[in-house]
Amino acid sequence: MVYISDSVNAENKIPELLRNIRGIILDFDGTLFDNSLIPFWVIAANPLDIIRVWRERLVRKRFTGRDFSTPEKYYRAFFAAMGTVCHRPADVMRNWYFHRYMPRMIRVLKKHYVPRPGVKEFFSRLESPACPWGLSANFPQIAVYSDYPFLRERFASLGITAGSRIRLYGPESFGAQKPAPRPFRRIAEDLGARPDEVLVIGDREETDGLGAFNAGMRFFCLKTGRQRYFRLDPYRRHPSTDEQQPGPSLLMYAGAWNELTELFTRYYRS
């Protein structure tokens, strides 16, 4: 891992992190805001749903990295699995998910959560005609990719404006969950970039980071203070040994949100 301060050799040089970058893929949950305690607040909003919420998260973990090729195939499989663990028909679980669970999550975000410091300003400056980073000239295209639907509504619940320059993607876009590589590559195509010209920014190495690795992209791991034990390579080795092990690995950068935006400001200043 390379820390962001280590990747900048001189003020007038392009930092390796941003060299030839034409697109940026941002994670939403945990990256643009601290999503700690979300299950608690969602359950507290309706304690009678505690079992369903717990089982939804269990099924979601089982679907990690799976790619069903289309959104409808993904949702059919997801709600069939939900129906099995909840002992209810799949259509009942689909209705609960889209009409009760996700609207409740949006209300929880609005009531209990705020964007990370600097995030709201970041998106506002991207939309500003006088963007200090020269967006119209050379700032990379931006996409936000989440494993949960209703992304635009969840943006609004945090008071963040996702304007016309920001492309939004969720499971309804691809029928897959991170770290499946196809969605990352599709987003790169939409941004008009090759995979090696895309920087993924997220807080989870095992989803955002591994997705970036599988798609051949660079990864910036947001430092959130939450310790995670995961070695980012295809062998899924636990980072408990100092031995040099063979096999591919990802050049990964790490830093806080303010360090990243300061770097953007310095490099993309008009």
What does the model show?
This protein is 41% helix and 11% strand. The chain contains 10 helices and 7 strands. The protein has a 7-stranded parallel sheet with strand order 1-7-6-5-2-3-4. α1 (38-45) packs across α4, α3 packs across α4 (90-112) and α8 (181-190) crosses α9. It is globular. Mean pLDDT is 84; it is low at 6-12 and 228-243.
Largest sheet: 7 strands, parallel
Strand proportion: 5-15%
The helix-and-strand class reads: alpha/beta
Q: Secondary-structure element order, as H and E?
A: EEHHHHHEHEHHEHEEH
Oligomeric composition of the shown chains: single chain
Mean pLDDT: 84
Query: End-to-end distance, in Å?
Result: 30 Å
The gross shape turns out to be: globular
Largest beta sheet: what is the strand line-up?
1-7-6-5-2-3-4
**pLDDT < 50 stretches:** 6-12, 228-243
Q: What's the tally of helices? A: 10
Percent helix among the residues? 40-55%
Radius of gyration: 19 Å
What is the count of β-strands?
7
Give a brief rundown of this model.
The protein is α/β, with parallel strands linked by helices.
Summarize this structure as a short list of keywords or feature phrases.
globular, 270 residues, 7-stranded parallel β-sheet, single chain
Topology diagram in text:
Blueprint: E1 2-3, E2 23-27, H1 38-45, H2 50-62, H3 71-86, H4 90-112, H5 119-127, E3 141-145, H6 151-157, E4 166-169, H7 171-174, H8 181-190, E5 198-202, H9 205-215, E6 218-222, E7 252-255, H10 257-267
Parallel strand pairs: 1-7, 2-3, 2-5, 3-4, 5-6, 6-7
